[in-house]
Design brief:
By secondary structure, this protein is α/β, with parallel strands linked by helices. It is built from eleven helices and eleven strands. It is globular, with a radius of gyration of 21 Å. The two termini are about 35 Å apart. Bound molecules: pyridoxal-5'-phosphate.
């Protein structure tokens, strides 16, 4: 069955499956002193090293979490509390309007619950790129800022100007969190450009339920207890998930050919789509994009109907934005790009995507357009 929804979750990589199985056959708590504990700890540390390499970070800075939702919450709440403790409170949280809900909702919750902190939204251009001029102006405002941006957007694949954002934040003394979930493994990352970076294993071919925060600044833990992971995230480590994450990170990083192959596959997919269905519009196509993502509008067709029609043909894609209830919500990313009236689907390829998968998407969309166009145009 053609699976073209890698930005939602990627199929488990064989290397990750093998690492998970090895971890599950071990008995030992990574905190235990005995041989079993030492073997578990060695496995977790090898994974930490691999994840650090993927992020362009030092392994000591990697804190494993249950995923990127937790990593983003840990970063945002942890920084706000650390700044308060240090007597230099955060006055403004600035988030780009296209952030993942795990960032947007957490930032909203902090602004609602913590007196003296306000939320400032950074707009994006029609191409979905953070508006650097708007950020520059906001950063000139009063009060210490914590900025959260993504390295690349999960709906459009549009790559954000993190180097420039980092320079602006450094110059104004703002702290910077980068959500690198979608970008990881699809482009080089440099955690040195930011203070905190979030990652998620399952977008790379690791199991679901494991992620990491790269910590490069003060942070107050949000889970306390046994003092694991230098006291920054208590709880016995999810060793099998962590081992799978390490293996997936290693495979994603060591495979330059994978990125070249994906870029060729995605570009030829878009070319074929445009030739056979000239009405199709690819959003974000004028901006730098990740090698694996296409966000497609067929004018007049609702995302929900497109996703369902493709699903009936056995082709799995997402709407630009999906929510956990399984219903398709309007995309806040398209709205931020000034395209809130449009409805789009996201086709995202990954490590095991093939030409047949791409061809199946085109064939199914052409079939749907032939059937639904008269009604769409009416
Ligand atoms: N950030 C982005 C950009 C995402 O796409 C996702 C998941 O869809 C998350 C964060 C949350 O990741 P997780 O599923 O690991 O909690």
């Amino acid at each position: 069955m053609p699976y073209c929804d890698h930005n939602a979750t990627a199929p488990l990589r064989p290397e990750a499956r093998e690492a998970v199985e090895r971890a599950l056959s071990l008995t030992g708590n990574p905190s235990s002193v005995h041989a079993g504990g030492r073997a578990a700890r060695a496995m977790a540390e090898a994974a930490r090293e691999a994840v650090a390499r993927l992020a362009g970070a030092k392994s000591e800075s990697v804190i494993f979490t249950s995923g990127a939702t937790e990593a983003n919450a840990l970063a945002l709440w942890g920084v706000v509390e650390a700044a308060m403790d240090a007597g230099k409170p955060i006055a403004r949280i600035m988030v780009s309007a296209i952030e993942h809900k795990s960032v947007l909702k957490t930032a909203e919750a902090i602004a609602e619950r913590v007196a003296g902190i306000r939320l400032e939204m950074v707009p994006v251009t029609v191409n979905g790129v953070l508006d650097v001029e708007a950020l520059t102006i906001l950063l000139h405002g009063e009060g210490r800022a914590l900025v959260a941006v993504m390295a690349a957007n999960n709906e459009t694949g549009v790559v954000q100007p993190v180097t420039e954002i980092s320079r602006l934040c450094r110059a104004s003394g703002a702290l910077l969190l980068v959500d690198a979930v979608t970008a990881a493994g699809k482009m080089p990352l440099d955690a040195g450009l930011c203070d905190y970076m979030s990652l998620s294993g399952h977008k790379l071919g690791a199991p679901q339920g494991v992620g990491a925060l790269i910590v490069g600044g003060p942070l107050v833990p949000q889970l306390v207890g046994g003092g694991q992971q230098k006291g920054l995230r208590a709880g016995t480590e999810n060793l099998s998930g962590i081992a799978g994450f390490g293996a997936a990170a290693k495979a994603a990083l060591s495979n330059d050919e994978e990125r070249t192959r994906l870029a060729t596959l995605r570009d030829s997919f878009e070319h074929t789509l445009k030739v056979t269905l000239p009405e199709a519009v690819i959003l974000g196509a004028n901006a730098p994009r990740l090698c694996n993502t296409s966000n497609i509008v067929l004018p007049g067709l609702a995302a929900e109907n497109m996703v369902i029609a493709l699903d009936l043909d056995g082709v799995m894609v997402s709407s630009g934005s999906s929510c956990s209830s399984g219903k398709i919500a309007a995309s806040h990313v398209l709205a931020a790009m000034g395209k809130g009236d449009l409805s789009s689907i996201r086709v995202s390829f990954g490590w095991n995507s093939s030409q047949d998968d791409a061809d199946a998407v085109v064939a199914s969309l052409v079939k749907l357009w032939q059937r639904a166009r008269p009604r769409a145009a009416a």
